[in-house]
Amino acid sequence: MAAEEEGAGMDSLSGLRMDIGNLLVFDATDPGIEEASTSSDDYDEQCLRKGARAIQALAEKLFNMPSEADKYGRLVILPPPTTKLPREKPLPKPRPPTKWEQFAQSKGIKKRKRSKLDFDEDAGEWRRRYGYKRVADERDIPVIEAKSTDEPGEDPFSNMKKEKKARIEKQEKNRLQNLKHTLKVAGKSALPSTVQLSTMALPITGSAQVPKKLTKDELGEIAGHASTATASVGKFDRKLEGEKPAKHAGKHRKFLPVVGSSKEEKQQSDKILDKVLSRHNQEIVDVNKVSDLIFAFRGLANFSHGVLGFCVGC
Amino acid sequence: MLRVVKPKTKQARRVLEKRAPKIKENVKKALLLHGTSTSAVVKGVLSDLHHIKKDGGNAVHWTRKNENIRPFEPAGAAPLEFFSKKTDCSLVVFGSHSKKRPNNIVFGRFYDNHVYDFMELGVERYKSVKDHGGARKFSPQVGSKPCFAFIGEAFESDEKCRQFKEMMLDFFRGEEVDRINLAGLDRVFVCVATATKQVLFRHCAIRLMKSGTKVPQIVLVDVGPSLDMVFRRNQTPGEELRKEAMRTVSKAPQKKIKNVSSDMMDGKVGRIYMPKQEVRCRASLCHGRETRLFTGWRDRAEENEGLKKRASRSGCSSSRRGKER
């Protein structure tokens, strides 16, 4: 603060410091009110007296400053304030150039002003370049001449509408892309004040994780499950337009043909027999499991003997 | 995935634009509120400060209790930061009253909706605007630019006094101006430091009396509120934050002036737009009402256009707008 005060004007006569831009006087030579025992009324009186003296010095300066005439009297021209005060918000940041602006600069394309009105040859009058009742408005075209390249069955009017819509969507996409770039490069403060970027899916309150987006395969699987979750396993359900058959139709077991050659059946039996009769056949047996089973059978046998014995006894 | 969130109404858009960071900032707004326990003195001080600052919507006064606000604790200042953002206020006055700190007033400043500094003062003696009722005749005009008088060496040497000085200036100075009408110089905040670490705050009206010279004689009339306060706790900004908040632009961009250009030969050249003048209807254009055409013209007009009636008013005034240098 002391360093900042040096910039303020110093009145040589009264020894007062002034910041005329803020209409501020500071009397550092005055010790303030020293007597602690003075009554409150005395305080008030002293305050006013000291204040009036300081303001008188300020008025002395102000009334002798250059001024200019105005409708309501003379206006004194004030110098800029010298006391530095903190800002309430950070300085606005310039927006980084958009992709188009970068491209235009590299190619040396200059922005040029175009008039708001343009001459419409068909209507024979001046019309707006954009907006309602504009030049060559697509909506006002009554007839489109057929071309040799036209495909039969396609409506050129709806095509035109579709193209227009696609152009708008593309521009919107570009805009979002530029905003994202701005956010990445220059931070939040460089975005326009009226625009905020927010995430599409907000996390559920209390959990930090954003819900995972399902992949195409996962979605297909879920759709398949849902379509077969009926009494007829989806057999008699009406299919939607463009619906593809479920990926897993539900057939998992394979049965060998009942008639025909028994070659396959023989192969299967041989495979099992080979496993059982091979030299390392103990490897295919879980010894623990088998021993458990044996003990279980023995216990069962003992239990049944006991029961029988009891029966005999009575 | 990101999406753009835009205001849905024009009004909301304007509000956001108004709140946006600017090179030349708005006048700082103040939020006045109190905690769960208050006293009549605290409430009175808050409403008086609101009375001084409210012009131009520069003060927001909340008169209900606010829980869990303890400015000098990190978590306790969070609600204030939230309120500051909600109300777009970068100045806060928080009043409370307890056995430990009776009649407590905390002045706070915010930078980018985060705490910049705090200063706590205890009100020892208070005289409200109402109690000064007799001086109402001289009471200053609402929203006029105030003067400040800081008296006492302590405002330079003492850290808390220095902060008080800066805080008061930030609170009440209003808009930065480059021109002022001296006839409208009608209020001053007088702050006097005492030897007993007190600060006396007075809000006075200025009366400009005849003195026989160019400079009038100044007479101050106390219009209230008058506060005798003692310093309690304070919190100052870190060096980094202070530096960040004090940043300025060396050269503010000039606003483009339309239709004015400079020429080597002619100097400053202005371009004006004039409606195309039609001499025939000149009289009616000038007076803004339908007038009779001069007989000679009328006869010729009727001849030429085969009109039976007089030239209608609409026909005269709907002359095409032409661009002329």
UniProtKB/TrEMBL annotation, chain A:
One of its GO terms (biological process) is endonucleolytic cleavage in ITS1 to separate SSU-rRNA from 5.8S rRNA and LSU-rRNA from tricistronic rRNA transcript (SSU-rRNA, 5.8S rRNA, LSU-rRNA). It is found in: Nucleus. Coiled coil: none annotated. It comes from the Eukaryota. Signal peptide: none annotated. One of its GO terms (cellular component) is preribosome, large subunit precursor. Keywords: Nucleus, Ribosome biogenesis. InterPro entries: Ribosom_reg. Residues 74-118, 143-168 are annotated as: Disordered. Involved in ribosomal large subunit assembly. Belongs to the RRS1 family. This is Ribosome biogenesis regulatory protein.
From TrEMBL, chain B:
The keyword Kinase does not apply. InterPro entries: Brix, Rpf2. SMART domains: Brix. Residues 297-308 have a biased composition (Basic and acidic residues). Pfam families: Brix (PF04427). Keywords: Nucleus. GO terms for biological process: maturation of LSU-rRNA from tricistronic rRNA transcript (SSU-rRNA, 5.8S rRNA, LSU-rRNA); ribosomal large subunit assembly. It is found in: Nucleus, Nucleolus. GO terms for molecular function: rRNA binding. Signal peptide: none annotated. Residues 28-240 form the Brix domain. Residues 297-325 are annotated as: Disordered. It comes from the Eukaryota. The keyword Nuclease does not apply. One of its GO terms (cellular component) is nucleolus. Belongs to the RPF2 family. This is Ribosome production factor 2 homolog. It comes from Selaginella moellendorffii (Spikemoss). The lineage of its organism: Eukaryota, Viridiplantae, Streptophyta, Embryophyta, Tracheophyta.
